[in-house]
């Protein structure tokens, strides 16, 4: 007896795709494609969710999401990442001021902390009585960040396919040593970023934010710098219009130039190398 083949999910219609592309890019000037799948349509409809309903995230749902995370590619089959699941309300409240003090953090039913984890390589090296010198290199740290990001994004897509919502939390790098201590991380491990997870509240007003035109990020054979400034200005126009529709006066170019002007907007992340070194990830 063979396993039953599950029914194919409905194929998105051309109209659904065009509508999703228009929202995704914040313009009616979009180029649809034939190679659309339910997965792609779902990805086009991503939006960060910062307001959650009371509906709990079940252990079964979490298992599905984290299993999808584990299916992501991992550099050299090493698995340089871990994830810490935080559900305890008191623990969320302890972590909140460490990770940006953002209002929605302790309201999320689940916090996930995606960890660069080189600890297990030390365990194996120590047991074998050999050094683990290559874990000290920037390459090893970067591999851990890349692995963690790939796993996390697989989790995000899986969560959204179930109808749940996520928001990444870069603020989880604001106080790396304190956050690591709160999560009981071993040496040679650090949080790459956090993620809130929960069912979107019916009152959540967040809309799909426009992305730059493909011409800004997709190049063929060689990077085309000549079109970059006009594309940046076009994206700024779309983004500013998007926020104006919310009644928010926002200037994307001013925001970017202000963020990168100096270190004022980093909330502690400007000392990340020092913090990583203290946590046993010297990143030489
Ligand atoms: C690594 C990373 C860190 C982020 N950190 C935060 C954060 O600390 N707080 C927050 O509200 N959103 C955070 N975000 C969400 C972004 O602001 C959001 O993805 C972006 O504005 C685009 O909006 P969208 O996800 O709704 O399309 C983060 C996103 C990424 C990828």
TrEMBL record:
Presence of the UniProt keyword NAD in the record: no
Transmembrane intervals: none
Keywords: Flavoprotein, FMN, NADP, Oxidoreductase
Pfam families recorded: Nitroreductase
Residue ranges annotated for the Nitroreductase domain, each copy included: 46-199
Gene3D superfamilies: NADH Oxidase (3.40.109.10)
Keyword match Transmembrane helix: no
Listed GO MF terms: oxidoreductase activity
Listed PANTHER family: OXYGEN-INSENSITIVE NADPH NITROREDUCTASE
Family according to the record: Belongs to the flavin oxidoreductase frp family.
Protein name: NADPH-dependent oxidoreductase
Native organism: Pseudoclavibacter caeni
Phylogenetic placement of the source organism: Bacteria, Bacillati, Actinomycetota, Actinomycetes, Micrococcales
């Amino acid at each position: 007896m063979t396993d039953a083949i599950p029914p194919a999910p409905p194929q998105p219609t051309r109209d659904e795709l065009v509508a999703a592309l228009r929202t995704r890019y914040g313009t009616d000037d979009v180029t649809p494609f034939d190679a659309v799948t339910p997965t792609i349509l779902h990805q086009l409809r991503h939006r960060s969710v910062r307001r959650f309903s009371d509906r709990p995230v079940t252990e079964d749902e979490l298992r599905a999401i984290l299993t999808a995370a584990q299916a992501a590619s991992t550099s050299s089959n090493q698995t340089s990442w871990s994830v810490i699941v935080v559900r305890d309300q008191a623990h969320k409240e302890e972590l909140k001021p460490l990770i940006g003090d953002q209002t929605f953090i302790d309201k999320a039913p689940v916090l996930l902390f995606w960890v660069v984890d080189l600890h297990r390589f030390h365990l194996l090296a120590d047991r074998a009585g050999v050094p683990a010198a290559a874990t000290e290199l920037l390459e090893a740290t970067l591999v851990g960040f890349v692995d963690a990001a790939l796993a996390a994004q697989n989790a995000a897509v899986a969560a959204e396919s179930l109808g749940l919502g996520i928001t990444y939390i870069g603020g989880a790098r604001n106080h790396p040593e304190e956050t690591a201590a709160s999560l009981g991380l071993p040496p040679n491990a650090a949080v790459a970023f956090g993620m809130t997870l929960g069912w979107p509240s019916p009152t959540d007003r967040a809309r799909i934010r426009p992305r730059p035109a493909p011409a800004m990020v997709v190049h063929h054979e060689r990077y085309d710098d000549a079109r970059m400034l006009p594309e940046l200005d076009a994206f700024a126009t779309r983004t500013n219009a998007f926020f104006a529709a919310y009644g928010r006066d926002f200037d994307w170019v001013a925001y970017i130039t202000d963020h990168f002007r100096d270190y004022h907007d980093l909330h502690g992340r400007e000392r990340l190398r020092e913090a990583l070194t203290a946590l046993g990830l010297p990143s030489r």
